[in-house]
Amino acid sequence: MQILVVGSVAFDTVKTPFGEAKEALGGSATYFASSASFFAPVSVVAVVGEDFPLDDLEYLKAREVDLSGLERRPGRTFRWQGEYGFDLNEAKTLDTQLNVFAEFHPRLPESYREREVVFLANIDPDLQREVLTQVLSPRLVAADTMNFWIQGKPEALRETLKHVQVLLINDAEVRMLAQEPNLVRAARKILTWGPRTLVIKRGEYGALSFSDGGWFAAPALPLENVHDPTGAGDAFAGGFLGFLASTRNFEEANFRRAVIMGSVMASFAVESFSLRRLEHLTYPEIEARYRQFKALAHFEDL
Amino acid sequence: MQILVVGSVAFDTVKTPFGEAKEALGGSATYFASSASFFAPVSVVAVVGEDFPLDDLEYLKAREVDLSGLERRPGRTFRWQGEYGFDLNEAKTLDTQLNVFAEFHPRLPESYREREVVFLANIDPDLQREVLTQVLSPRLVAADTMNFWIQGKPEALRETLKHVQVLLINDAEVRMLAQEPNLVRAARKILTWGPRTLVIKRGEYGALSFSDGGWFAAPALPLENVHDPTGAGDAFAGGFLGFLASTRNFEEANFRRAVIMGSVMASFAVESFSLRRLEHLTYPEIEARYRQFKALAHFEDL
């Protein structure tokens, strides 16, 4: 199955206790596509300004990433600037410049309308729906969102959620969205709003997924070298959906494998600034790390 | 194998967003013994004041807990008062009254000196060693500690650690003890100081164990009803060591089962205030919850 992603392609300026990157390649669609493209063909819907060096995305083309839906418009590319402390679990946003993203209303290339798997990255929920309505008959729709939309556009977000099968957000967002401090009760509430599966990303603490089929707890690999958590959530979504698209199997056991594959891709993403690690990654490294996750989490019956 | 525990028997006054308890039965040795006694005989070393109603510990005697090392001395029993916010991960201590614990220098009953498994709960590291030297030939020594001793008595603690095989502490304490923000590097450092296994308790995020045999990540069960996290760490230690003592198997695969059993017992402990849940628990409930952990964490190879 082929995947469609709508999200940002951006310049990130990031500082962590382990270094910094200035105006480096970033954006949710970029991280997602870099990750998902190891598993399935990806079509990108996004916008960049005249200042964007398209050559920076050449490595994606080599992995069958279709960039015909990447618009180039007059003006400057989206820019984000943030900082992380030692715990690396939460970014402090220092500056956001939407630039060409502010007026973005994507028209999907005709070929994109046939895509079966869709990832609506963390953008305005109205925009997420604008894209989704242009897809003819999606089999699996997954979405991300954040506190900014949960608080700022709650009705639009609830409307989008009606059309989403998998919602991928973090703990704090789950509690905020459901307005319920207990995670189990919060998850149960959100599962009545549209999504059949809720994947809760918890950074260095792993991921939890909730669905009618049960709960699944995936560990995070303890890493000796974490440099920059930016994009980890989108790399996770890329591994998760890429794996599901490539295996065409939406059963519970395969969803669990997909959550692990998401965790695998996130674990690589944080090992370097920007997309460097995902750019130079190989599939055998991915398989080896999946086995590391298995060894990490395995225990025997009594 | 029989287990020896030295720790506190106390009155706790606790407030959480889900209720409160005043002067309720608590203390590290109490939580530990209540948990470990489902698996193996436990001998308690602790001190209480004249105000302590020994009848409150009757349920422990029914489970082969030996209280002959529980001194009763003139004065008041140890008291702790604390409060938790919604995240329940960290207690805010409001008041600590050591009372009879201040001058505690335990003399072990003769029969206790033969014990093979020892748990040194979170007390002064000098006191931990005082107890340990009275045990003839321990096969497995585990210890807990906290920021107060890590910062206040670092040399005494390092001395105690030389004689400890398993150290059970939380993430923040691992980083503080090793003076290293990265958890993997911190763990590796501590493993050169004596302990062969480091079990890191992470509350609602589960537990991580590090040893030469590898790393193991245990999930926490997402709970719908968490009332009071007090004593969860000691209940964890009780399940962990109780299971190891009862199976007499210290191999890596069995250590992993023991970490899960610790998590199982902690998951029960937090479901009520004080010892209520552990007091009325049954072994079939423990086995059923172990299976729930297995179902929660299981995933297939690629």
Protein model, in words:
2 copies of one chain form a homodimer. Chain A has a single domain, classed as 3-Layer(aba) Sandwich (UDP-N-acetylmuramoyl-L-alanine:D-glutamate ligase). In chain A, helix 3 (125-132) packs parallel to helix 5 (154-161). The model of chain A has no long low-confidence stretch (mean pLDDT 96). In chain A, a hairpin with a 6-residue loop joins strand 6 (79-84) and strand 7. Chain A is of the alpha/beta class and 302 residues long. Chain A contains 11 helices and 13 strands. Chain A is 34% helix and 25% strand. In chain A, the strands form 2 sheets. Chain A has a 9-stranded mixed beta sheet with strand order 5-4-1-8-9-10-11-12-13, with helices on both faces. In chain A, strands 3-2-6-7 form a 4-stranded mixed beta sheet. The termini of chain A are far apart. Chain A is globular and about 65 Å long. The A-B interface holds A 17, 86, 181-185, 187, 202, 204-206, 208, 210, 214-220, 222-224, 226, 253, 256-257, 259-260, 287, 290-291, 294-302 and B 17, 86, 181-185, 187, 202, 204-206, 208, 210, 214-220, 222-224, 226, 253, 256-257, 259-260, 287, 290-291, 294-302.
